[in-house]
Amino acid sequence: MMTLKRFKIVVILVAALVVTVAVVGCSGSKSEDKAATDGTENAGQTGGQIKGTVKVAGSSSVQPLAEELAEAFMEKNQDVTVSVQGGGSSAGIESANKGTAQIGTSSRELKPEEKGYGLKETVIAKDGIAVIVNSGNKVTALTKEQIKKIFAGEVKDWSEVGDLKGPITVVVREEGSGTRDAFQEIVLSKEVKFISNAVVQNSTGAIKTAVTKDINAIGFISSGSVDSAVKALSVDGVLPSEATVLNGSYKISRPFLFLTKSEPDAAAKAFIDYVLSEEGQKIVSEKFVKVK
Amino acid sequence: MNYKTKEKIYEKILLTSAFVSVITIILIGGFVFKEGAPLIAKVGLVKFLFGTQWFPTSGEYGIFPMILGTFAVTLVALAMGVPLGVSTAIFLAEFAPPKVTRVVRPAVELLAGIPSVVYGLFGMVIVNDIIMYVERTYLAGILKPEYQRGYSILSASIILAIMILPTVINISEDAIRSVPNEYKEASLALGATEWQTIYKVLLPAASSGIVAAVVLGMGRAIGETMAVIMVAGNTVAVPDSIFAPVRTLTGNIAIEMGYASGDHVRALFATGIVLFVIIMVLNSVATFIAKKGVSRS
After folding, report:
1. Model pTM?
2. B3-296: what CATH class?
3. Domains in chain A: how many in total?
4. Residue A6 Ramachandran class (φ > 0 left, ψ -120 to 50 alpha, else beta)
5. How many alpha carbons fall within 13 Å on the CB side of residue B97?
6. Which run of H or E residues covers position A242?
7. Interface of A with B (CB under 8 A)
8. Which of A13, A223, B155, B189 could be A240's S-S partner, Cβ–Cβ 3.0 to 4.6 Å?
9. Does the pLDDT at position B149 exceed 60?
10. Same domain, residue pair A137 and A226
11. ipTM score of the complex?
């Protein structure tokens, strides 16, 4: 099939590739770091000198929503620049307290010692996660502790938690998914890992399909995406719904908080007002539970 | 402009076109290596390749289960698809009456035209259900509970075996048809039966072409992503049974790219490097085998 000459060419090509790689690879890491810092600066952009810049920093779960809100806000208020950064809830609370950001964001309630900072908390959205099973499954309610044990792999058979018999098929989202992170944070806690042989699907739709097909399956999706194809379980006696997520009685939910020092400046206040306005809450309700 | 300069210009244009693919492969390769190499350097090559824990958001990057998963799915697919494909090719080249050929050949071509997501859907809804039924009804006592979910190496391989059929059939058939007729006639004249002729003369003479068919089929199987994601379960665990759910290297990239950031993205590019190297090695091996086959015949 292949002549010797052609084989030689392949060898030369591979060699060329290796050389390119070596050259590009060496310079690569530096430019990479530069790009990363550029990225965060870029979010601030120019134009901030006109009326004001609002720096929002904190929870990486809040970040995508905050970015979307910031974009919509800046379209209406060209003089204000809103820059959104990640870093985590703890970092967000700290930066609001120290004043390095006008608005700190958090995707969890403040701990007692953090309450002591005297920050003003504004709930901008609620995030609820429904635990779903096959509609043929007789189980209708589980405790948060049972759910934790199922997803951590301590409970492996439905007979341990209800009438149904059969090994539990745990279906989870992929690493990096916001729903997975939230579920991990609320139900499993940081140290506990998901059972390693769980089936992994990378979209809400795929999770639903997997649960629909297998009577022994259990999975989790955002509470807003539940429909009649699957059955949402009540957790500690409460079914997920907008109302129960909103009032916090449904346990697998978390608030998205904006934290400010007692009196935020005009630009920050304008942004918070926009987020709580009808228009802002409409953006919120696309993926989360709105608070107004 | 005289015809000689014209000729030269055309030649150069063609040369440039030819180099577009070369440059593309170097660019893509370079980019993947550039993005992924720092992470491999950070984690350590051995730990990255042979680690069994994959928790990229908590800094654990072991892709060994996925390397195994890729090979397992591909090999089982070849074990099913190649005999079926080569048999079909022999039938089409040697036995099929024109009426049958008129049905079989378009069917094979149609098979090649079905988008992979449709194969995936078929696998997810039909194949997985059947396998889950078999697992839970007949093998429930033998298999581990987590191997009774339908998602498995087996179901991914069945889908892939169907997907590589067109490649295997078409190239093998060409190879068998291109064996000089004298070989066959000589064999039959010596008193060999038709089957003996196929088995002892045609297939060995066409072997390099059939190897090429297998290799191209293997390339398709390793690279296929969407259909495999939908049926394989995507569990990151070292498989120890054909009923085990697996994640492949391509699947890993496709599943997690959406929300990945920072080192997680680099880890996915690093997965790409491994894939790149595997395919380069396989291609070289295939070229080597094919060359040997040619020089012998």
Report:
1. 0.77
2. mainly alpha
3. 2
4. alpha
5. 2
6. helix A242-246
7. 1-4, 7, 10, 13-14, 16-17, 20-21, 24-25, 28-29, 32, 156-157, 167, 169, 174-178, 181, 193, 196-202, 206, 209, 213-214, 216
8. A223
9. yes
10. yes
11. 0.81
